[in-house]
Amino acid sequence: MSWTRRFPAVPAALLAALLALLALLSLLAAAPAARAHEERPVALPDGTGSVPAYRAAEPDLLVCKTDRPAFERRVAGFPQELRQRNLDLYERCEKNGYRHLQQAVDAVDRPGMNIAVLPGLYEEEPSLPAPAGECAGLKAPNSSLGYQILSYEQQEKCRHNQNLVAILGKTNLQIEGTGAARTDVVIDAKYQKLNAIRADRSNGIYFRNFTAQRTTFNSLYVLAGDGFVIDDVLTRWNDEYGFLTFASDHGLYKNCESYGNGDSGIYPGSASNINDGRGYDVPRYSIEITGCRSHHNMVGYSGTAGDSVWVHDNEFDQNMGGASMDSAFPGHPGLPQNHARFERNLIHDNNADYYHYVADGTCAKPPVERGYEQGVVCPQISMPPGTGIITAGGNWNLYEDNWVYGHRRAGFFLSAVPAFIRGEEKWSKQTDTSHHNRYAGNVLGKDRSGASRPNGTDVWWDGQGSGNCWQDGPDGSTPGTLPQCGKERGQVSGASARLVGEPVKLTQLMVCADYNVQARKLPAGCDWYGARGLERVETQIAVAVAAVLLLVGGTLWWRRLRGSRLGTAASLCGLAGLALDVAGSTTPLAATPVPAVALLLLGLWWTGAGLALRPGRPWLARLTLLLGALTLLDAFDKAVLMIPWIPLSPAWVRALVAVVWVLWAVVASARPGPAAPARPAGPGDDPAGDRAPVPAGPAPALTTTAEPPAPTTRPDGTAA
Q: For the whole model, what pTM was predicted?
C-alpha cells in the first residue's frame, strides 16, 4: 500500500502548505510599484572635485528690486554696519544690477563669480509663465507623478518649463543673500514650478543665506554636481523636498533649516557610492550634513541610495519620522543604500500624523489651496508615524551616540527590502539588504538633560539580515532578543543570518506599502494610517489563526483527548496561549514578553497533546510533537537568543507545519472512535500507524468441531 493511501491527509496538507507559501509570494509580487523622485539617467561624479570654500570678496553681480522705500524698510532693523553695506550695494545695483536672479545667472561668463542678492521677495516673473512654442511640445517620458523627465539638453533649451531659476553648467558659482537673516531674501515659486532653484552639472556651487519656497517638488535642487555647499539656507512648503541633492559628491549642508515638505526636508539621494564594497572603516564620506534642523515634514531626512553620508550634530523633530535610509525606489544609482553614519544628532518627538489631510481631500486640491503655510503637509509615500530612524533596506550604516526619544512607535526601525521592489529581478540580489547595521552608544528614551522621554519601543526589526547589532538594554524591542554590539565595530554576539523577515511583519510591511496620495488610497489594516484594534492586519491574522486553532483543537480534544488528563491540561494551556497570542499582537503588548509567553503556552499545548495522542494516533502524535518543538524553539528565538546559522526564522517552518497539522487533525477528529484512554496503550497496539478502532459490543462466540467433554460423576454416583 502506498504512503499516500495509508496517510491520505499528508498530500492534501502538503498541498495546502504550498498554496499558503504561493499566496505569500503573490502578496509580495503584488506589492505596489515604488514611487519617489524620478530623474533622467545620470552617472555619479568621478570624484575629482572638492568641497568649495566660501568667498568673502565683493560680489561680481548684484540682484535687487527697484522699490527703494520698501528696501529701506527691510534693512532698517539690521545692525548698523550690515545696514550700511546693503545701502551701498543697493546704490550699485540700481545702476548696473539685475532685477531677477535668473538674469544674473545668465550673465555669469566665467568660473568663480559671486552673485549677491539683496533683501527682497523674488518671484522671478519672467520665468513664471507656462511653456509656449516648442517648449510646450517637448517629447519626453512622464514620471509617475505626472511631470516630464527631461534630458539635460531639453533643460538647456527650455530652462523654465520646470525651474524658476535654472543654473546649468556653471562652475564655482556663489549665490549669497545679503540680509541679516535667511528670511530677508526669499525666492518664491508660487507653486507654479517644479523647482525653485535647479543647479545641474554645476560643480563647486555655493548657496548661502536665503529662503526658497513654495514649489510642486523641490525648493533647492543640486543634480550631478561634484562639489557643493548649502550654507544657512531655509526651504519650506513644497510638495516633495526642501533640499534635494542627487547623484552628487563632495557636498556639505550646514546650518540649514527645512519644514512643511511632503517628503523630506533634507534628501541626499544617490550620494556618490564611493565606499561600496568596504566595511565600517572608510576613507571619506561623499556628503556631510551638520548643524541643520528639519522639522514638521513627513520625514526630516531621507536618502534613497543615500550612500556615504555623514550626518552629525543636527536636529530632526516634529516630523512623522525623524530620518530614513532606503533601497526601495528604482532609478537611483548606488542601490542598495550603504554607509550612512549618524552621530550626535537630536532625533525626538517625531509623532506628527498628516495622513488625515489625504483622507479628508485636502491634498487633492491644487497646491496653492492646500494650506501649506498654515501647517498642512501632504505625505507622498508610506511612512510609520512616530518613528525615530528608519532603515528600509540598507547596509553598513552606523548609528552611534545619538539622542533618540519621545517617539510613540519606535526609536529605531529596521526592515529589509527585496531587490524586486526596486526593479532588480535576479534571485541572487533579493536578500542583499539589510546587513551590518550598527546601533551603539545611543541615548534612548532620555533627552539631553537626562529627563525620561521614552519611546513606545526602542527597536522594531523584521528579523532579516546578518551582522546587525544593537547596544545593551533597549527599553522594549520586537523581537524581544537582539544581537548585541561589541566594543569594536564588527563585533557581534548573538548574531543571526536570516534570509527573510518574520512572516507577520513581512505581511504588515506589504499591506502598509499600498499607499497612494494621488488616488487618496490609505491601506486598510495598517496602523500607520489609523487602524486600531481589530482593524490592524497583525491582530486580524492573530484572531484568524486563533479561531482556526480553537475550533480544530477543541474538536480534537472532544473527540480524542477528553478522556486524558494530560490532553485536557495541554488543551487548557493552548486556550491560554491563543488568548495571549491575540493580546500580544496589539500595539501596547507587541514589544513585551507576552508574545513569547503565548508561544511557550502553545508549545506546551502541542507537546502535551502529542504525548496524549501517542496510544491511538501515533503519526499524528509525532507531527503534533514536532509542531510543539518548533513553537518552543520560536519562543526561545524571540525571547532568549536568536538562533544562529538558520536561514529562516522558526516561525516560517512552524507556520507551514501548522497548516499540515490542522488538516491532519481535522481528518483524525472526523474519523469515528473513542476518546484517548487515560492509560498508555498495551504492547498489542499497532505501531505502524493510526489503526482503525475496534467496534464496541460483546465478544463473538467461538466455533469448534471438537467433541464435547465426557460427563463426570460425583462420589455419590450422581452426574456432575
A: 0.88
